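Lab notebook, design round three. We kept the backbone fixed and only want residue identities now. Task for the bench partner: fill in a sequence for the structure below.
Input structure tokens:
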């Protein structure tokens, strides 16, 4: 290819005042913006990060302070430049950045005045600030080199550290729009935002917060962030499925099936719902260098989150040299898998959903061994009529048959009774109630939902029949407590175990 002569080109720099406003529209929210700055702190080897904020009588400010390595004057000058890094350059495996834009675009999305003050271990101190109003006035890419008077008190916390960096945001015109929010509501609204920020940071950086001796500490105001574990790994009923690795171990995928609600404490259920709720938090959790990029959902696959799959969550780790392959955006809030992995990831997603639905539909008191049990023992059967699904009472359920045999009703009476019940199942109401309050139709506390004594006696009769047919006591208990409704309450198994142990409780 022939070389083009220099005279065929002319400089065409972007207009500073126009470009700066375009950079403010990258789509960050406050939580994302702060997380982007924390990425820089982690890469600078910070062990402690403090997010502070103040309303300041309607002129609010936010600061992010860390005890990382700090920056020299030359390094800070480069860091303040837009596009200070080529995204295609090879970088440290611990680098959480990519485009050389995060500090600036995250900041510009929230405020008009950003000051960065840094101190290295040898005492070198450097300062720079971006003032977007100044850029608008002079129409030049100019940064300030001395701390403005109104910022001086806000950078003083850095003086207490041997080394580190503090970033101060002022003129927060994007945080609270006081043109539409009354002043008396603006202040509490400002402080409430940091509750959301804290939970978001607990989610995004949970693997850094729980890394043992190498863990970091993040404090938002007075709140010390605790790691939010999407997989409830401290709960013994969480199932970790087999890990799959790809491309020389640079990609790893670990599906988790979270415990049924009956196996979780109220605190685990509340915290496990995450910021979006149980249904929306199912799916893939994509991490880049342990830093969460995606928190739930099924990427861009044609799979919808559904209620009965909500216990399935899939950890997906990639290294930081795969940003281009995964289309990681500047905000670190979007990822799309490369074509070469799509079939495997889709397979894993479907397999995880299949396992999740099994646990979701499970009940407490499930028998230890139910290989011999099938749907013939269920009280309700699912039937498909064309594209519709209906539920019918199982005429062959042994408990229903026994009860009807006792009263010996006419066949026409049974047909009328079953039709009245089956035709009025409140399908839509059940779906709405369950979406508003997870599994609200089951797992009533046993002491408030004891079966009647007549049903306990019937359970004992079934047990004795199994014993007479040659079953061992243990087999008989498993068989009987697999039959509906004897599988719906722990009292049935308890009564049979009393008989097995030779108890005197005969009902």
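Proposed sequence:
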């Amino acid at each position: 290819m022939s070389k083009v002569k220099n005279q065929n080109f002319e400089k065409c720099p972007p207009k500073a005042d126009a470009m700066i406003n375009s950079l403010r529209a990258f789509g960050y929210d406050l939580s994302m913006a702060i997380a982007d700055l924390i990425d820089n702190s982690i890469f600078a080897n910070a062990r402690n990060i403090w997010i502070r904020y103040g309303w300041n009588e309607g002129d609010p400010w936010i600061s992010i302070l860390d005890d990382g390595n700090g920056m020299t004057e030359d390094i800070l000058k480069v860091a303040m430049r837009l596009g200070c890094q080529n995204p295609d350059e090879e970088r440290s495996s611990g680098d959480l950045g990519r485009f050389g834009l995060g500090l600036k675009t995250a900041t510009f999305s929230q405020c008009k005045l950003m000051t960065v003050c840094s101190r290295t271990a040898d005492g070198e101190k450097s300062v720079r600030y971006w003032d977007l109003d100044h850029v608008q006035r002079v129409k030049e890419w100019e940064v300030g080199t001395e701390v403005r008077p109104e910022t001086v008190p806000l950078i003083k916390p850095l003086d207490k550290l041997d080394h580190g960096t503090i970033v101060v945001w002022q003129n927060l015109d994007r945080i609270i729009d006081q043109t539409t929010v009354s002043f008396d509501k603006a202040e509490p609204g400002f402080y409430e935002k940091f509750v959301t920020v804290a939970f978001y940071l607990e989610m995004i950086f949970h693997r850094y917060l729980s890394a043992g001796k190498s863990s970091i500490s993040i404090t938002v105001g007075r709140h010390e962030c605790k790691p939010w574990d999407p997989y409830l790994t401290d709960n013994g009923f969480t199932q970790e499925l087999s890990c799959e690795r790809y491309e020389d171990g640079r990609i790893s995928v670990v599906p988790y099936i979270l415990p049924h609600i009956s196996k979780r404490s109220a605190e685990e259920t509340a915290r496990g719902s995450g910021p979006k709720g149980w249904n929306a938090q199912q799916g893939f959790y994509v991490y880049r260098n342990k830093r969460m990029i995606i928190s739930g959902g099924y990427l861009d696959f044609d799979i919808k989150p559904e209620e009965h799959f909500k216990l399935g969550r899939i950890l997906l780790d990639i290294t930081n040299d795969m940003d281009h392959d995964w289309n990681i955006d500047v905000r670190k809030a979007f990822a799309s898998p490369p074509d070469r992995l799509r079939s495997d990831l889709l397979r894993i997603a479907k397999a995880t959903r299949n396992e999740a639905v099994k646990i979701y539909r499970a009940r407490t008191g499930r028998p230890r061994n139910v290989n011999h049990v099938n749907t013939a023992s269920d009280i309700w059967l699912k039937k498909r009529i064309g594209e519709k699904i209906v539920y019918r009472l199982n005429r062959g359920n042994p408990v229903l048959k026994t009860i009807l045999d006792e009263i010996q009703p006419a066949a026409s009476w049974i047909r009328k009774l079953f039709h009245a019940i089956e035709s009025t199942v409140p399908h839509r109401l059940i779906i709405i109630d369950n979406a508003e309050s997870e599994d609200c139709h089951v797992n009533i506390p046993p002491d408030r939902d004891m079966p009647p004594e007549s049903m306990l006696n019937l359970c004992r009769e079934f047990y004795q029949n199994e014993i007479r047919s040659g079953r061992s006591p243990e087999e008989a208990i498993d068989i009987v407590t697999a039959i509906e409704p004897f599988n719906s309450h722990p009292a049935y198994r308890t009564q049979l175990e009393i008989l097995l142990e030779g108890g005197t409780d005969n009902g």
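Keep this in mind before ordering anything: The chain has three domains: 16-224, 239-360, 375-500.
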